[in-house]
Amino acid sequence: MLRAAAGQLSQVIRGSFGVTRIAGVQSVRNSSHSTETDVEFDARYEAYFNRADIDAWEARKAMNDLLGMDLVPEPKIVSAGLKACRRLNDYALAIRWLEGVKDSCGPHVNTIWPWMVQEIRPTLTELGVETPEELGYDQPELALKSVFEM
Protein backbone atom coordinates (compact mmCIF):
# COMPACT_ATOMS: atom_id res chain seq x y z
CA MET A 1 0.00 0.00 0.00
CA LEU A 2 2.87 2.31 0.78
CA ARG A 3 4.42 1.50 -2.60
CA ALA A 4 1.22 2.41 -4.45
CA ALA A 5 0.90 5.69 -2.56
CA ALA A 6 4.53 6.54 -3.23
CA GLY A 7 4.06 5.79 -6.96
CA GLN A 8 1.03 8.08 -7.18
CA LEU A 9 2.84 10.80 -5.25
CA SER A 10 5.83 10.64 -7.61
CA GLN A 11 3.50 10.97 -10.63
CA VAL A 12 1.85 14.03 -9.11
CA ILE A 13 5.23 15.62 -8.37
CA ARG A 14 6.51 14.89 -11.89
CA GLY A 15 3.36 16.38 -13.38
CA SER A 16 3.59 19.54 -11.30
CA PHE A 17 7.23 20.14 -12.24
CA GLY A 18 6.68 19.21 -15.89
CA VAL A 19 9.17 16.33 -15.84
CA THR A 20 7.96 13.67 -18.23
CA ARG A 21 11.02 11.80 -19.47
CA ILE A 22 14.75 11.73 -19.00
CA ALA A 23 16.35 12.30 -22.40
CA GLY A 24 19.58 10.43 -21.66
CA VAL A 25 17.84 7.11 -21.08
CA GLN A 26 15.99 7.27 -24.39
CA SER A 27 19.14 7.94 -26.39
CA VAL A 28 20.95 5.00 -24.78
CA ARG A 29 18.09 2.63 -25.60
CA ASN A 30 17.97 3.70 -29.23
CA SER A 31 21.71 3.39 -29.79
CA SER A 32 21.79 -0.41 -29.56
CA HIS A 33 20.25 -1.17 -32.98
CA SER A 34 22.24 -3.35 -35.34
CA THR A 35 23.02 -2.43 -38.92
CA GLU A 36 23.55 -6.00 -40.12
CA THR A 37 22.75 -6.59 -43.78
CA ASP A 38 20.72 -9.53 -45.05
CA VAL A 39 23.82 -11.22 -46.46
CA GLU A 40 25.65 -10.91 -43.14
CA PHE A 41 22.59 -12.22 -41.29
CA ASP A 42 22.36 -15.27 -43.57
CA ALA A 43 26.10 -15.93 -43.30
CA ARG A 44 25.99 -15.67 -39.50
CA TYR A 45 23.24 -18.27 -39.13
CA GLU A 46 24.71 -20.53 -41.80
CA ALA A 47 28.08 -20.47 -40.04
CA TYR A 48 26.35 -21.11 -36.71
CA PHE A 49 24.62 -24.24 -38.01
CA ASN A 50 27.78 -25.41 -39.80
CA ARG A 51 29.82 -25.49 -36.57
CA ALA A 52 31.19 -28.95 -35.91
CA ASP A 53 30.74 -28.64 -32.13
CA ILE A 54 27.10 -27.49 -32.13
CA ASP A 55 24.99 -29.28 -29.55
CA ALA A 56 21.26 -30.00 -29.52
CA TRP A 57 20.40 -27.07 -27.25
CA GLU A 58 22.26 -24.57 -29.45
CA ALA A 59 20.62 -25.92 -32.61
CA ARG A 60 17.14 -25.73 -31.08
CA LYS A 61 17.83 -22.23 -29.74
CA ALA A 62 18.97 -20.92 -33.13
CA MET A 63 16.02 -22.55 -34.90
CA ASN A 64 13.60 -21.14 -32.36
CA ASP A 65 15.14 -17.67 -32.70
CA LEU A 66 14.87 -17.81 -36.49
CA LEU A 67 11.29 -19.03 -36.44
CA GLY A 68 10.38 -16.34 -33.92
CA MET A 69 11.43 -13.60 -36.33
CA ASP A 70 9.12 -12.17 -38.95
CA LEU A 71 10.90 -13.82 -41.88
CA VAL A 72 11.24 -17.00 -43.90
CA PRO A 73 14.80 -18.35 -43.63
CA GLU A 74 16.79 -18.65 -46.83
CA PRO A 75 17.13 -22.17 -48.28
CA LYS A 76 20.86 -22.23 -47.50
CA ILE A 77 20.08 -21.61 -43.80
CA VAL A 78 17.41 -24.33 -43.84
CA SER A 79 19.87 -26.75 -45.45
CA ALA A 80 22.54 -25.89 -42.89
CA GLY A 81 20.01 -26.51 -40.11
CA LEU A 82 19.10 -29.89 -41.60
CA LYS A 83 22.77 -30.85 -41.78
CA ALA A 84 23.19 -29.83 -38.14
CA CYS A 85 20.25 -32.10 -37.28
CA ARG A 86 21.99 -34.93 -39.11
CA ARG A 87 25.24 -34.37 -37.22
CA LEU A 88 23.23 -34.45 -34.00
CA ASN A 89 21.39 -37.59 -35.22
CA ASP A 90 18.04 -35.94 -34.46
CA TYR A 91 15.52 -36.78 -37.18
CA ALA A 92 12.61 -35.43 -35.15
CA LEU A 93 14.29 -32.03 -34.90
CA ALA A 94 14.79 -31.99 -38.67
CA ILE A 95 11.08 -32.64 -39.27
CA ARG A 96 10.11 -30.05 -36.66
CA TRP A 97 12.48 -27.56 -38.34
CA LEU A 98 10.78 -28.15 -41.68
CA GLU A 99 7.34 -27.76 -40.08
CA GLY A 100 8.43 -24.48 -38.52
CA VAL A 101 9.81 -23.16 -41.79
CA LYS A 102 6.58 -24.08 -43.54
CA ASP A 103 4.59 -22.33 -40.82
CA SER A 104 6.72 -19.20 -41.15
CA CYS A 105 5.60 -18.91 -44.78
CA GLY A 106 2.29 -17.64 -43.42
CA PRO A 107 -0.50 -16.90 -45.88
CA HIS A 108 1.87 -17.35 -48.86
CA VAL A 109 2.54 -21.00 -48.03
CA ASN A 110 1.17 -22.15 -51.40
CA THR A 111 3.81 -20.16 -53.28
CA ILE A 112 6.82 -20.07 -50.92
CA TRP A 113 6.80 -23.65 -49.56
CA PRO A 114 6.96 -25.45 -52.95
CA TRP A 115 9.86 -23.19 -53.93
CA MET A 116 11.59 -23.89 -50.61
CA VAL A 117 11.22 -27.66 -51.04
CA GLN A 118 12.55 -27.37 -54.58
CA GLU A 119 15.61 -25.48 -53.34
CA ILE A 120 16.40 -27.82 -50.44
CA ARG A 121 15.50 -31.07 -52.26
CA PRO A 122 19.18 -32.02 -52.88
CA THR A 123 19.90 -31.72 -49.16
CA LEU A 124 16.76 -33.68 -48.28
CA THR A 125 17.71 -36.55 -50.57
CA GLU A 126 21.34 -36.49 -49.44
CA LEU A 127 20.32 -36.76 -45.78
CA GLY A 128 17.33 -39.06 -46.32
CA VAL A 129 14.90 -36.61 -44.75
CA GLU A 130 11.30 -36.52 -45.91
CA THR A 131 9.05 -33.49 -45.84
CA PRO A 132 6.11 -33.41 -43.44
CA GLU A 133 3.76 -33.94 -46.41
CA GLU A 134 5.64 -37.06 -47.48
CA LEU A 135 5.31 -38.40 -43.95
CA GLY A 136 1.59 -37.64 -43.89
CA TYR A 137 1.88 -35.04 -41.15
CA ASP A 138 -0.21 -32.54 -43.09
CA GLN A 139 -3.31 -34.70 -42.53
CA PRO A 140 -4.63 -35.39 -39.03
CA GLU A 141 -4.42 -39.06 -38.12
CA LEU A 142 -7.30 -39.44 -35.68
CA ALA A 143 -9.54 -36.56 -36.69
CA LEU A 144 -13.27 -37.11 -36.69
CA LYS A 145 -15.37 -36.26 -39.69
CA SER A 146 -17.39 -33.14 -39.47
CA VAL A 147 -21.11 -33.70 -39.06
CA PHE A 148 -21.63 -31.48 -42.08
CA GLU A 149 -19.54 -33.80 -44.30
CA MET A 150 -21.44 -37.00 -43.44
Automatic annotation (TrEMBL):
<dbReference type="Pfam" id="PF02284">
    <property type="entry name" value="COX5A"/>
</dbReference>
<keyword id="KW-0597">Phosphoprotein</keyword>
<comment type="pathway">
    <text>Energy metabolism; oxidative phosphorylation.</text>
</comment>
<dbReference type="GO" id="GO:0045277">
    <property type="term" value="C:respiratory chain complex IV"/>
</dbReference>
<comment type="subunit">
    <text>Component of the cytochrome c oxidase (complex IV, CIV), a multisubunit enzyme composed of a catalytic core of 3 subunits and several supernumerary subunits. The complex exists as a monomer or a dimer and forms supercomplexes (SCs) in the inner mitochondrial membrane with ubiquinol-cytochrome c oxidoreductase (cytochrome b-c1 complex, complex III, CIII).</text>
</comment>
<keyword id="KW-0479">Metal-binding</keyword>
<dbReference type="InterPro" id="IPR036545">
    <property type="entry name" value="Cyt_c_oxidase_su5A/6_sf"/>
</dbReference>
<dbReference type="InterPro" id="IPR003204">
    <property type="entry name" value="Cyt_c_oxidase_su5A/6"/>
</dbReference>
<keyword id="KW-0999">Mitochondrion inner membrane</keyword>
<keyword id="KW-0472">Membrane</keyword>
<comment type="similarity">
    <text>Belongs to the cytochrome c oxidase subunit 5A family.</text>
</comment>
<protein>
    <recommendedName>
        <fullName>Cytochrome c oxidase subunit 5A, mitochondrial</fullName>
    </recommendedName>
</protein>
<dbReference type="GO" id="GO:0006123">
    <property type="term" value="P:mitochondrial electron transport, cytochrome c to oxygen"/>
</dbReference>
<dbReference type="GO" id="GO:0005743">
    <property type="term" value="C:mitochondrial inner membrane"/>
</dbReference>
<comment type="function">
    <text>Component of the cytochrome c oxidase, the last enzyme in the mitochondrial electron transport chain which drives oxidative phosphorylation. The respiratory chain contains 3 multisubunit complexes succinate dehydrogenase (complex II, CII), ubiquinol-cytochrome c oxidoreductase (cytochrome b-c1 complex, complex III, CIII) and cytochrome c oxidase (complex IV, CIV), that cooperate to transfer electrons derived from NADH and succinate to molecular oxygen, creating an electrochemical gradient over the inner membrane that drives transmembrane transport and the ATP synthase.</text>
</comment>
<keyword id="KW-0809">Transit peptide</keyword>
<keyword id="KW-0349">Heme</keyword>
<keyword id="KW-0832">Ubl conjugation</keyword>
<keyword id="KW-0496">Mitochondrion</keyword>
<keyword id="KW-0408">Iron</keyword>
<dbReference type="GO" id="GO:0046872">
    <property type="term" value="F:metal ion binding"/>
</dbReference>
